[in-house]
Amino acid sequence: MQSHTLTHLKQLESEAIYIFREVAAQFERPAILFSGGKDSIVMVHLARKAFWPGKVPFPLIHIDTGHNFPEAIEYRDWMVKEFDLDLIVGSVQGSIDKGTAVEERGVNPSRNGLQAITLLETLEEYKVDAAFGGGRRDEEKARAKERFFSHRDEFGQWNPKNQRPELWSLYNGHYNEEEHFRIFPISNWTEMDVWQYIALEKIALPSIYFAHKRNIVERNGILLAESPWNTLLEGEKYEERLIRYRTLGDMTCTGAVSSDADDLTGIIQEVASSKVTERGNRSDDKRSEAAMEERKLQGYF
User: Fold this and answer.
1) How far is CA 207 from CA 32, 50, 135, 263, in A?
2) Mean pLDDT of all residues in the chain?
3) Average pLDDT over residues 130-157
4) 89: pLDDT confidence band, cut at 50, 70 and 90?
5) Are 180 and 152 in contact (CB under 8 A)?
6) Closest CA to 252 of 216, 220, 291, 224
7) pTM of the model
8) Which of 107, 175, 226, 237 would staple 179 via disulfide (CB 3.0–4.6 Å)?
9) Considering Cα of 182, then 185, then 191, then 195, what sign does the dihedral take?
């Protein structure tokens, strides 16, 4: 007799697919926020499964800071073409040029915080009422407060005390004019779940996630890649190291990890033994104790 017991990965997949379909039923203009990172790649894979054999019925939105890893942009363009996806690109540089965002000053200015401004402008321009994000509760304490359906007010702001109950997988997507929702289908996944699912489904990833040689500088315990936007401080110099990335953001703030894991088996073993969270190498999260929550309150992903 055939067993209908699902593995924990298939249970997580089923939950996420249900949420994708629920959003498609409740909202008029959903979109997937796409960074080129592993979580957003898994979300696109789940969306394709949810609506197969049809096309994913909503676009990807990429907020381009101009400080991206080239590998992430190359992968984004490949994925859009390979799976016939619609892509909307919001430009942080465009926001700076028109005066709605102001470039940071200093030796190594980051555009990470400016993404919220460009994101809100893009959501407003395209009248998006539900934006899928790849946030997971295990990543960071501010993200642990999120619901699957995360309400945002008319200013795009998040209030963790003003979230709706989600009992028995019932989701309330009602919103007033100018408000919208952020949707987090993989909230219950862990980093290990993501990697095991990628291996199970044989999902292609940007090469940046696998061990490779790159020129880096160590600053405050973080390994930053050589780029046009990083300025060396006195006494610093770049050196070639064998590294990979556990999380993907701007080159100005995303730290690498020393690693020789050049395949998914090695990565899974490495994650299982690591005592540092995947965002432990993000300098943008170290600016204050509540850095992530402060950005989310302003409209960040």
Assistant:
1) 22, 26, 22, 10
2) 86
3) 78
4) very high
5) yes
6) 224
7) 0.88
8) 175
9) negative
Contacts of residue 40, Cβ cutoff 8 Å, sequence gap at least 6:
32, 33, 34, 134
Any residues with CB less than 8 A from the CB of 124 and at least 6 apart, and which?
Answer: none
Q: What residue has token string 């996630």?
A: 209
pLDDT in tens, 7-61: 999 999 999 999 999 999 999 999 999 999 999 999 999 999 999 999 999 999 9
The token pair at 213 is: 């040689």
Separation between Cα atoms, residue 219 and residue 31, nearest integer Å: 36
One-letter amino acid identity for 169?
A: S
Residue 151 to residue 132: CA distance in whole angstroms: 12
| Res 257 pLDDT > 50 | yes
Nearest to 188 by CA among 142, 144, 246: 144
Question: Is residue 287 very low, low, confident or very high in pLDDT (cuts 50, 70, 90)?
Answer: very low
